[in-house]
Amino acid sequence: GSDVKLESLEQEPCLDGWEYSRDVYHSTIVSEWNLVCDNDWKGPLSTSLFFVGVLLGSFASGQLSDKFGRKNVLFATLAMQTGFSFIQVFSVNWEMFSVLFLLVGVGQISNYVAAFVLGTEILGKSIRVLFCTLGVCIFYAFGYMLLPLCAFFIRDWRMLLLALTLPGLLFIPLWWVIPESPRWLMSQGRFQEAEHIIRKAAKINGVTAPDVILDPSELQDFSSQKQQTYTILDLMKTRNILTITIMSVILWMIISVGYFGLSLDTPNLHGDVYVNCFLSAVIEVPAYIITWLLLRGFPRRYSMAAALFLGGCVLLFIQLVPSRMESL
Length: 328
Known about the structure:
Layout: H1 29-33, H2 42-68, H3 70-88, H4 94-122, H5 125-153, H6 157-165, H7 182-187, H8 191-204, H9 216-226, H10 239-264, H11 273-282, H12 284-297, H13 300-320
Helix pairs in contact: 2-3, 2-4, 3-4, 3-6, 5-11, 5-12
């Protein structure tokens, strides 16, 4: 009988070197810096470091945009993401690449969060749900679809990274288009600037603005309330808010693990990596449209529970499908 324990056998290092298949990718960070054999932990760590950046950016961006303004933080972090991503193209080793990737992560999540907050604060409540679902998310999905398309034609990682970085420059003219959040300006006591933005919006939308938008007597009350600042600890003050906070934290963790687990796993699926990545992006469009319809017509709790339940069931059923039935 073959009773040899494979784990106990001594492993021999890769003595004769290695060759990389050029069928799918011409060059990657793995082939460039030989992240194989003893160094194969470095590839996945790069991705993890990006998400460490996302963690740091999530903490910092909210505090910074409360202090310096939504618009300033949005554009500063867009510049940060584009700038460090551009420098990343010229990385000389894996360490440099990974540190820059962490900084790109900080910038990426910070401008995403700032844009979300700015949009919800500028827009009226009737259109806010539309902005969050179809406005932000559907265009996120379109960008996601463009990724495998670019990668299909640009098989070298440096050139691909450059191609994905340069569109960041298209945001520069938006500085003169996107206004600061009037709500934030008011919270800072900058009422004239806030009123100017509201009047401009009214003019563009063909609405006649009232003579007095911000009543001076009401502003006195507002200014006296203004001194109150909030921190993360305020989310734990009352039992009700604490419960909602804990539930939101758990939900976001579960959803992120599921979403990025599935998204980042597409290269390991059967079939063409580019097609799989493209399909994983395309499927988001109907998902966001369904979300928008659910948020319009159904209670949030039931929509949330149903989506999680459905997702969980599908993932469980995948385990029951025989591996020979690839398409299913």
